[in-house]
Amino acid sequence: MKKKILAVIIAFCMGAAYTGCSVKTYEDKTVTVLAAASLTDVMGELEASYEESHPGIDLVFSYAGSGALQAQIEEGAPADIFISAANKQMNALNEEGLMVSDSIVELLLNRVVLIVPSDSTLEIDSFEDVLNDDVGMIGLGEVESVPAGKYAQQVFESLGIWDEVQSRANFGTDVRTVLTWVETGEVDCGVVYATDAYTSDAVTIVAEAPEGSCDRVVYPAGIVEGSEVRSEAEEFLAYLGSEEAGFVFESYGFTMAG
C-alpha cells in the first residue's frame, strides 16, 4: 500500500514536471492502448497521472495476453498503441504492416520467477522442484500466446524437464490468470513475472529463472498503423519512456529498457 501511495505522489509531481508545471487543454480525444496483462497495475497509476495533466485526453486500456492482443489488432480492433510482453508479437504485427515501424521502442524489462501460495508447506525452492512428488499442478501461461508461458518453456527446456512439466501443467490465457491460480491455491506453484508477484501478498517468490535460461524479457511498445489520433498516441508513448514515468514503473519492479 505504501508503495502504491508513493507511486501516485511521484506520478502526480512528475506529471506536472513533464508538462512544464502547466496544464494544457486538449481537444477531447480517446487513446486506446492494448497492453500485456502484467502491466495492469502500473498502467492504472500512470493513467490517472497522465489524464490529470492532459485534460481532454481519455486513455482506454485493454489488457490480455500479448498473443490475444496481437490477434485483436490483426482482426481490426480499434487500437492506437500496443505494448507487448515480448518482441515476437510486435515483430509479427510490424511485418504485417500493422505497426508504425519507426515508433516501436523497447520500453521495459522484467524477470521470470517461480511462485507458490504464501501459506504453502511444500518444499519448492527451485524450478527443478516443480517435479517433486508432492507437487500436483503447475500454473503456466499458454506457450503460443502468452510470453510468460514461452519464457517458462525455455527455462524448463534448459533444465531438460519440459516434457515432465507439461504433464502437470495447467495453461492460462494470460499471466494474471496464473497469478490468481497460485493465490487461491488452485495450483501448487506457477511461473509469472516478478512484477506480478510484487502485486500480491498471497504469493511468495521462491526462485528466479537461472541466468541465460530464457530470452531477455523485453516489453516493446509502438503505435498501431490504423490509429486516428497519432499525435496524441505519440505524446503518450513519449511520456511512457520518460524519466517521470520511469519512477512509477520502477516502483512496481520494472526496469526501463532505454
Q: What's the quick description here?
A:
The protein has helices at residues 2-18, 40-53, 66-74, 87-95, 147-158, 162-166, 175-184, 194-198, 230-240, 243-251, and strands at residues 29-36, 57-64, 81-83, 105-110, 112-117, 138-141, 169-172, 189-193, 203-208, 217-223, 255-256. With 258 residues, the protein is an alpha/beta fold. The longest helix has 17 residues, at 2-18.
Largest sheet descriptor: 6 strands, mixed
In what range is the share of β-strand residues? 15-25%
Low-confidence stretches are 1-23
Number of helices: 10
What is the rounded Rg?
Answer: 19 Å
Q: Based on DSSP secondary structure assignment, what is the total number of beta strands?
A: 11
Structural class: alpha/beta
Task: Tell me what the structure shows.
The protein has 258 residues and is α/β, with parallel strands linked by helices. 39% of the residues lie in helices and 23% in strands. The protein has helices at 2-18, 40-53, 66-74, 87-95, 147-158, 162-166, 175-184, 194-198, 230-240, 243-251, and strands at residues 29-36, 57-64, 81-83, 105-110, 112-117, 138-141, 169-172, 189-193, 203-208, 217-223, 255-256. The strands form 2 sheets. Strands 2-1-3-10-4-11 form a 6-stranded mixed sheet. Strands 7-6-8-5-9 form a 5-stranded mixed sheet. α2 links the parallel β1 (29-36) and β2 (57-64). The relative contact order is 0.21. Residues 1-23 have low confidence and may be disordered.
